[in-house]
Amino acid sequence: MEELPSTAIGIKVNEGIVLAAERRLSYGGYVLSKSAKKVYNVDRFGIAGAGLFGDLQALTRIMTANIKEYELHNERPISTKAAAKLLSIILYQNKYTPFISEIIFGGIDDSTPQLYVLDPLGSLLDDVYAAVGSGARVAIGVLEAEYSQSMQLSQAKELAIKAIKASIERDITSGDGIDVLTIDTRNIINAEFVPY
Predict the structure, then answer these.
(1) Is the pLDDT of residue 140 over 90?
(2) Is residue 1, in this structure, part of any structural domain at all?
(3) Helices 153-170 and 136-146, interaxial angle, to 10°?
(4) Which residues get removed as pro-piece (predicted)?
(5) Full-prediction pTM beyond 0.90?
């Protein structure tokens, strides 16, 4: 499968998770938008992705509805792992007409950070850091060189920004600023935009 346009990153540390992605929306050599948000807060979770922008938006809406339905039906909050498995099932059910998106999904369960990576067909991997999209090759090099599980959440956020900036420098489909979402072990969610 061809690399999906964009760059998105997820990092898990003891203090929480960080999701980040750049904002350029391009098709071929054409920049369609410079303000496409690819990092979303869904309930208590975060989703970041690379690929077709419309598919990422659709998956976010589908997950929002399915999480609410699960919690109403079961009368308890869904865990991050269960929500990630639900997303995996949704992706796999659509394998013949797939969502053309690579997804990084994260949240906090019992003060423990969780980070998952999913491909367009629903493969689900638990990892400590991940990079997806066409800029992932550059970003993963930065993450591998500097990541430590014991780093503070603020350091992980700076590392995510650094990795996305490196991708922006080398990947034509990445650029126009960085959205960053952090979730700490108390489930406090912060989102910010970093111009670049």
Answers:
(1) yes
(2) no
(3) 150
(4) 1-5
(5) yes
- Give the Cα separation of 192 and 143 in Å (integer): 20
Token output for 22: 């750049």
2, part of any domain: no
Q: Are residues 67 and 126 in contact, defined by beta-carbon separation less than 8 angstroms?
A: no
Bigger pLDDT: 186 vs 4? 186
Average pLDDT score over the chain: 96
Catalytic residue list contains 182: no
Question: 7, 60, 80, 182: which is the annotated catalytic residue?
Answer: 7
What is the domain-level CATH number for residue 59?
Answer: 3.60.20.10
pLDDT at residue 29, as a whole number: 79
Give the type of residue at 114.
Q
DSSP 114-182: EEEEE-TT--EEE-SEEEEETTHHHHHHHHHHH--TTS-HHHHHHHHHHHHHHHHHH-TT--S-EEEEE
